[in-house]
Design brief:
Strands 3-4-2-1-5 form a 5-stranded mixed beta sheet, covered by helices on one side. It has a single domain, classed as Translation Initiation Factor Eif1, CATH 3.30.780.10. The longest helix has 12 residues. With 109 residues, it is an alpha+beta fold. A hairpin with a 3-residue loop joins strand 3 and strand 4. The protein has 3 helices and 5 strands. Helix content is 25%, strand content 27%.
């Protein structure tokens, strides 16, 4: 009998990239509707070695808004800002060099 060396093509896995990029952590910027026109902007997923209080202080000074740092059981520390500051925060984080543009996910309506 003759041995034939045949390679069977493996199936394409569309989620291969997602499995490989599991180490990539995103910074999530969300908006939460309060009552009426009022809203909150939340920032989660920053590295733990950053000083959240200093970042919050700079954000409040830059955008003329109020905010605070909240400790969540599941999410860790979360920065909350008054108003819709999603674009401002993403621009601030990239220009300050804290995160790269491709690591930011902006959520909301």
């Amino acid at each position: 009998m003759v041995e034939v060396d045949i390679t069977i093509p493996s199936a394409f896995d569309p989620f291969a990239e997602a499995k490989d990029s599991g180490t990539k952590e995103y910074v999530h910027i969300r908006i939460q509707q309060r009552n009426g026109k009022k809203s909150l902007t939340t920032v989660q997923g920053l590295k733990k070695e950053f000083s959240y209080e200093k970042i919050l202080k700079d954000l409040k000074k830059e955008f003329c808004c109020n905010g605070n740092v909240v400790q969540d059981k599941e999410l860790g520390k979360v920065i909350q800002l008054q108003g819709d500051q999603r674009k401002n925060v993403s621009h601030f984080l990239t220009t300050a060099g804290l995160v790269k543009k491709d690591q930011i996910k902006i959520h909301g309506f």
